[in-house]
Amino acid sequence: MSRAVLPAIALAALVPLAVPARAADEKVDLAAVTRIRDEAFNRSKAQETLSKLTDELGPRLTGSPSYRRAAEWAKGQLEEWGLTARLVPVTFGRGWQLDHVAVHMLRPGVAPLEAYPKAWSPGTDGPRRGEAVFAKLEKEEDLDAWKGKLAGKVVLTSEPPEVRPREKADAERYTKETLDDVVRFEPGGRGRFSPAEREKFMKQRRFRRKLAAFLVEEKVLAWVDGSRGDDGTVFVQADGGWRKDDPPVPVTLVLGAEQYGRIVRLLERKVPVELEVDVKTTFTPEDPLASADVIAEIPGTDRKDEVVMLGAHLDSWHAGTGATDNAAGCAAVMEAVRILKAAGLRPRRTIRVGLWSGEEQGFYGSRAWVSETLASRPEPKEKPGDDTPPWMRRPTGPLFFKPEYAKFSVYFNLDNGGGKIRGIYTQENAEVAPIFQAWLAPFADTGATAVTMKRTGGTDHVTFDGVGLPGFQFIQDELDYDTRTHHSNMDVYERVPKGDLMQASAVLAAFAWQAAQRDGLMPRKPLPPEPKTPEREPAGRP
Known about the structure:
Layout: E1 6-7, H1 8-14, E2 27-28, H2 30-42, H3 46-56, H4 65-80, E3 84-88, E4 95-107, E5 111-113, E6 115-117, E7 128-134, H5 140-146, E8 154-156, H6 176-183, H7 195-218, E9 222-226, E10 252-255, H8 257-268, E11 274-284, E12 293-298, E13 303-313, H9 323-342, E14 349-356, H10 364-373, E15 375-376, E16 400-401, E17 408-413, E18 421-425, H11 433-440, E19 450-452, H12 461-465, E20 471-476, H13 481-485, H14 498-517
Parallel strand pairs: 7-8, 8-9, 9-10, 13-14, 13-17, 17-20, 18-19
Antiparallel strand pairs: 1-2, 3-12, 4-5, 4-11, 6-10, 7-11, 12-14, 15-16, 18-20
């Protein structure tokens, strides 16, 4: 028995972990794992990469000049580490960047306010003062009551977010019990949205569009939403705006919950509130390199035409510096391939990196890559009056397979914050479960043990899974991802623990290496039979 390769059954004797019987068939390269762990934990550069992406390059909104700078830097850094790299242009829409924002209360007292414009909001053309108005606009009938009364006003349209005392810490790690809950399979939990949730989302979306159009027509100075969260945390995204045919919107701001609540309470007591709003933003023409994917490779040896892929999304929102969402994932992916190069490991299969654009707006980057490189479906035709966003449309029509489809082995994605890896979702693929158990065993001492038959969504692995390819997302410690950092002004470097990032990088490197070295491609779930077309025969199963 080679020292470099041990059966998983021997590995299970070294690490206390319940491994299914089939895991004994999977060979695990422990010698490589030792080299990977040594480089990852003793000479890590992951934190340097994270700081570059967040502290220096800052927020990376898709389509913006800052995104392009980040993509060009990542390409150059990967090349410096010995990979071949390129930028692959992606069609997206117009760019936008925040140049300046300052919001102050002037009456009844002077106070700076923690507010951020939503992405693709216009600016104010300099400082402008206006009276604040609390107008509860929750349904179409409410608009008629306020028609002609809001010109030049700063309009608050929703109830103040509820702020409660925190009875437990913001950040949490999985315990054995809560991790068991993640692993436990529950039939029926397959979709991201239930039909009722889908309908509720679409109803809210349609009304907000009508409300935005109404406020533009009224010529309001600004439209202000109160953020969820507390302690000055402001969660900010966008209501569209990057597409050429998106309707105009007013200056749209999100204000911290406590300050928003103060203004509403004053107005309800009939105390006049005057605000000064100064927002400067820049719209930039569409630039395919400002929404480009970064693709890099370590070429394989005897099976170089087969591909193992790691990925994370490079784009972020703009209020913070996009640390946990998702510079941490990008830093870990980049570090994983740096580790493999530094450790002198030469994979059998080509190991490819994808740093994606446009994940936050609907997986633009990974969808474009999968469609152009692996497999595609005809774009679903919109029915008259259908305003469903593209990322919510269910795929229809036959799959057309590209030549690389048959040679593609697996894609691993990292995008759930800055916490360490605790396991992996199998996307209901039972054949990969014992394989993943074997690969995780050398990292059980770091807390990575969980393999669940559940599927998960909401990030770029779904574009691979959706065309029948093995695409997987890791389970990570949540920390304060949902409570504090996700899409907020608190999404900054300090929220990513150094040790967690090192561990995630090591697990990613090991998974890429084991997948590149195994005798066969990763098992695939069956697809329904695809009809033959004049363009291409179905690729079949390698």
